[in-house]
Amino acid sequence: MATQFLIRTSYKAVRLAAANHRSRTAVRAMCTAKGIPTNEEQATGLELRALLAQKKGKDPYSIFRPKEYAGTSEDPHLVPSIGDKRLVGCLCEEDNTAIVWFWLHEGNPERCPSCGSHYKLIHQELPH
């Protein structure tokens, strides 16, 4: 009698495990029917805003590498600012350890007092 009980319960357990395995396989197959979601499909918040802005060619959060300028009066380094002045630091030489700090005001390009590179302040709105 105990043997029959063990056989019946083990048979039911095997059938239940097989049924669970089939249902898990079906659920897993349904989830991947569409494929792996793209970044745009699963991004939210600021990440989604940044991705949409990148598609439009804008850089609201300064994610892209800045464009290099010659630093001359015709092609000055552009410095974005939300105000009418900003403190700018210039590394006059590539291996220089001292930074030359100066105030940059909105209007005409201004020169670095040490190396003579030109900088121009441009007004930029906040992205949010």
TrEMBL record:
Give any Gene Ontology cellular component: mitochondrial inner membrane
Q: What is its main location?
A: mitochondrion
Q: Which BP terms from GO are recorded? A: mitochondrial electron transport, cytochrome c to oxygen
- Could you list this entry's UniProt keywords, alphabetically sorted: Acetylation, Membrane, Metal-binding, Mitochondrion, Mitochondrion inner membrane, Transit peptide, Zinc
Question: What GO molecular function annotation could you give as one example from this UniProt entry?
Answer: metal ion binding
Per UniProt, what is one Pfam family of this protein?
Answer: COX5B
Q: Where does Zn(2+) bind?
A: C90, C92, C112, C115
The family database entries (CDD domains) matched by this protein are listed as:
Cyt_c_Oxidase_Vb
The cross-references to InterPro entries, in alphabetical order and at most eight, read: Cyt_c_oxidase_su5b, Cyt_c_oxidase_su5b_sf
Q: What SUPFAM superfamilies does the record tag this protein with? A: Rubredoxin-like (SSF57802)
N6-acetyllysine is found on K67, K85, K120
User: What compartments host this protein?
Assistant: Mitochondrion inner membrane
PANTHER family xref list: CYTOCHROME C OXIDASE SUBUNIT 5B, MITOCHONDRIAL, CYTOCHROME C OXIDASE SUBUNIT 5B2
Query: What is the official name of this protein in its record?
Result: Cytochrome c oxidase subunit 5B, mitochondrial
Query: Could you tell me which species this protein originates from?
Result: Acipenser oxyrinchus oxyrinchus
What taxonomic ancestry is recorded? Eukaryota, Metazoa, Chordata, Craniata, Vertebrata
